């Protein structure tokens, strides 16, 4: 027999290594430490725990062990391996890494490898001599158990947010709770008991895990999000220690009411559905008679005598409407409709009927059924479910009659399905949920029927149909309260909603970091801003923050009542139509700067404004001289590269220039000058550098202004290329990259401002004799909205001031 060189092979005819066959291995070790300080009585368990402790100390350096303790432990480990120390057997200590972690040997650069071997031999003789193997293990484990974090599992994570600690840290999970640990010093920066933990959320898209804490003291952070590939390991280990948090896989899913309904409640809801059907068919005559019944009346009309015709007429107008609109009319059908369910009248009735049938065809296609007759929308591929959904909901948004018809079709296809938990029914319910999150039928009779149907189907929460019906009801109620959307769902929204989860999207900050946040399909900018503020720990009274749509070089502030889901679809469609590889970045930053610009006690707001100031400098929205740019780059070098050292290469300063100096200055900024400034900042801490950076930016009298690049050709007294700065005091016109304004106007002097698609006109002092400026800019509406919002702030401030004055008691 010929043996292959591979220890693991695939099932192919020839010998080849299987995926990971050379490196993968199973490791048996203790995962949970219920009583980490107790000594196990089982000698086998003790041996395994000793081996795991050696691995933690020597291989992965989990504890803050100094050089002296490390040598003591190395001596005990040598006693376990070799027994008593024997003079002249120095080869036992050749593998220094078997006894000491490289961090320990790197601390003393004066010692050679031979020196460390001798030190381990001395430790072996001093601390291990005379001890039995079991005694040496007891001493070793007792020393390791002294450390507070013994028994915890360490996960290397990256914090996604702003705080005073390093972003790269260790998340320690143990029997007592969770701890945030400094990677280098192993000092505990913060710790929480499981009783303080509200929930654990694992990112559906990103490699993140979020710890949501219960309400604590005023201003304390409640949400901590970490980037890690071990997100599920963290969540499952927390659940093992604290079973109350075992629902992490369902965090974010729509909550399902698990109340078991009575037979009386079922009968009542069925009666509601029946009344709604009667209202549709008889009272409001909104439904078309089934074609087979209509044909029957046409062909046999002459055969009926007057009495029989009268009885049929009463059936159509009274309680016996079910003789015409039989149960098959209201129930699921795998066959195509021969005509729309509702009456579609008007000038374009035939066109609407054709579209209505295409909508039903789309429902069938989405469910995985290929109808034997009819056709769908020509622009949709048969397997492109997302485009099907988008096109169908777009038709509903455009025409109220089609919206009513489409909901009747969806209700029909989710009624009396032979297999309620089968794929076809689930697909139909997903379509229902997505539509409910976008558009609501304006017709009250249709809406009542839809709500009665959802209430009836949600009676069985243990089934998938019941869960989707409850989720659809939640989406519908939110849309009723927030009104219809402008656009269909985006690809990301579809992927989230079909799982009965809120939309999950990234929100970026000015330091290029992001946080994943969940929100529903009807969430407005104002609502999402409040969620983001809470998630990053920003105090509620921090005002002026907003969301911006950033797509490449395009940037637009989102209005408070705009739907965030609409923005996602709008830019997704734009990217698809222009074949652009760019994606939308929803960016969170401060828009309105009103004194005092920030709360000095809020470290989160400070870091947000710091990185926004850095971005303004790099993006050429702050006036700088070359020497000032070099000074600021030196401050960033102190933060990024650490204290100045001669060993830092000039290439590193080239990188600092590329990251922190405006593009038009980079060829003139020399790395040697940045290095010199770096050396001048040698005694400053990271926090002091950040404070000095922001202090320098705030010294500009127009700090807090939003800068717009504009062109003007209306008057010869001003240059063609200008900056238009808008802040709480008014509007300022500057030469590009100049600090002093050419002219400034307070808001009380601006009598009119009128934006158009590409221009902005501002009139000051008087409509007839005042000064008029016409600026060419694609951001005219953004400037106008900013002027309006600052004006409102001033008016509100004056109102509060007068109100406060009027309440003062007389002296």
TrEMBL record:
Entries under PROSITE patterns matching the protein: FERM_3 (PS50057), MYTH4 (PS51016), RA (PS50200)
- List each copy of the MyTH4 domain by range: 332-498
Q: Which PANTHER family match?
A: AGAP003327-PA, MYOSIN VIIA
Signal peptide annotation: none
Q: Which InterPro entries match?
A: Actin_motor_Myosin (IPR051724), Band_41_domain (IPR019749), FERM/acyl-CoA-bd_prot_sf (IPR014352), FERM_2 (IPR035963), FERM_central (IPR019748), FERM_domain (IPR000299), KRIT1_FRMD8_FERM_C (IPR057096), MyTH4_dom (IPR000857)
Its GO biological process terms?
A: signal transduction
- All copies of domain Ras-associating, residue ranges: 506-593
Superkingdom in the source lineage: Eukaryota
Q: May I have one GO cellular component term? A: cytoskeleton
Which residue numbers delimit the FERM domain? 1-249, 503-798
What this protein is called in its record is Pleckstrin homology domain-containing family H member 1
| Pfam entry (one) | RA_2
């Amino acid at each position: 027999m010929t043996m292959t060189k591979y220890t693991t092979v695939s099932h192919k005819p020839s010998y080849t290594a299987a995926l990971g066959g050379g490196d993968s291995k199973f490791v048996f070790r203790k995962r949970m430490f219920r009583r980490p300080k107790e000594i196990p009585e089982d000698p086998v368990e003790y041996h395994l725990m000793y081996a795991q402790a050696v691995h933690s100390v020597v291989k992965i350096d989990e504890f803050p062990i100094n050089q002296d303790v490390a040598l003591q432990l190395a001596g005990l480990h040598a006693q376990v391996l070799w027994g008593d120390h024997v003079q002249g057997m120095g080869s036992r200590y050749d593998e220094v890494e078997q006894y000491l972690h490289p961090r320990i040997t790197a601390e003393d650069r004066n010692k050679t490898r031979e020196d460390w071997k001798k030190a381990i031999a001395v430790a072996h003789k001093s601390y291990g001599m005379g001890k039995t193997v079991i005694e040496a293990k007891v001493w070793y484990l007792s020393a390791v158990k002294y450390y507070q974090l013994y028994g915890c599992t360490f996960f290397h994570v990256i914090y996604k947010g702003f705080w005073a600690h390093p972003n790269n840290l260790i998340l320690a999970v143990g029997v007592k709770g969770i701890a945030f640990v400094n990677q280098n010093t192993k000092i505990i920066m913060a710790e929480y008991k499981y009783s303080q933990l509200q929930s654990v959320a694992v990112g559906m898209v990103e490699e993140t895990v979020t710890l949501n804490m219960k309400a604590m003291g005023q201003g304390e952070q409640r949400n901590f999000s970490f980037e890690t590939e071990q997100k599920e390991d963290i969540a499952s280990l927390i659940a093992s220690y604290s079973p109350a948090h075992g629902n992490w896989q369902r965090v974010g899913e729509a909550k399902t009411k698990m109340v078991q309904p009575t037979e009386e409640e079922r009968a009542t809801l069925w009666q509601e559905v029946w009344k709604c059907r009667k209202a549709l068919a008889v009272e409001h005559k909104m439904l078309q008679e089934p074609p087979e019944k209509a044909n029957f009346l046409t062909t046999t009309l002459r055969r009926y005598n007057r009495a029989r015709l009268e009885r049929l007429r009463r059936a159509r107008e009274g309680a016996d409407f079910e003789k015409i609109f039989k149960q098959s009319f209201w129930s699921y059908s795998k066959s195509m409709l021969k005509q729309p369910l509702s009456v579609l009248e008007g000038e374009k009735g035939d066109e609407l009927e054709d579209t209505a049938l295409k909508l039903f065809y789309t429902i069938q296609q989405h469910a995985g059924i290929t109808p034997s007759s009819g056709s769908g929308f020509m622009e949709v591929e048969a397997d492109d479910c997302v485009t099907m959904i988008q096109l169908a909901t777009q038709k509903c948004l455009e025409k109220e009659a089609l919206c009513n018809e489409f909901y009747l079709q969806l209700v029909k296809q989710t009624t009396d399905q032979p297999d309620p938990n089968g794929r076809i029914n689930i697909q139909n319910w997903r379509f229902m949920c997505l539509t409910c999150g976008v558009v609501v039928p304006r017709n009250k009779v249709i809406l009542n029927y839809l709500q009665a149907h959802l209430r009836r189907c949600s009676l069985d929460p243990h089934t998938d149909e019941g869960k989707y019906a409850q989720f659809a009801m939640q989406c519908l109620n939110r849309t009723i309260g927030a009104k219809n959307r402008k656009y269909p769902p985006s690809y990301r929204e579809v992927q989230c909603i079909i799982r009965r989860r809120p939309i999950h999207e990234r929100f970026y900050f000015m330091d290029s970091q992001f946080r994943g946040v969940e929100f529903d399909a009807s969430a407005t900018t104002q609502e999402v801003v409040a969620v983001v503020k809470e998630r990053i720990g920003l105090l509620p009274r921090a005002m002026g923050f907003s969301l911006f749509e950033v797509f490449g070089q395009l940037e637009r502030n989102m209005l408070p009542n705009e739907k965030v889901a609409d923005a996602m679809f709008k830019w997704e469609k734009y990217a698809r139509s222009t074949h652009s590889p760019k994606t939308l970045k929803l960016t969170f930053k401060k828009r309105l700067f009103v004194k005092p610009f920030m709360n000095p006690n809020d470290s989160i707001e400070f870091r947000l404004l710091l990185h926004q100031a850095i971005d303004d400098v790099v993006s050429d929205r702050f006036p700088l001289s070359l020497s000032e740019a070099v000074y600021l780059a030196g401050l960033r070098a102190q933060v990024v590269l650490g204290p100045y050292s001669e060993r830092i290469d000039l290439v590193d300063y080239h990188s600092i220039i590329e990251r922190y100096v405006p593009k038009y200055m980079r060829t003139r900024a020399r790395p040697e000058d940045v290095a010199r400034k770096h050396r001048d900042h040698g005694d400053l801490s990271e926090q002091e550098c950040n404070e000095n950076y922001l202090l320098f930016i705030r010294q500009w009298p127009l700090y807090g202004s939003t800068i717009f690049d504009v062109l003007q050709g209306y008057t010869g007294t001003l240059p063609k290329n200008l900056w238009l700065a808008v802040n709480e005091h008014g509007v300022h016109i500057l030469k590009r990259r100049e600090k002093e304004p050419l002219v400034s106007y307070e808001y009380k002097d601006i009598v009119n401002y009128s934006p158009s698609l590409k221009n902005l006109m501002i009139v000051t002092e008087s409509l007839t004799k005042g000064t008029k400026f016409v600026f060419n800019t694609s951001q005219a509406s953004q400037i106008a909205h900013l002027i309006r919002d600052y004006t409102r702030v001033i008016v509100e401030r004056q109102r509060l001031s007068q109100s406060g004055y009027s309440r003062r008691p007389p002296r």
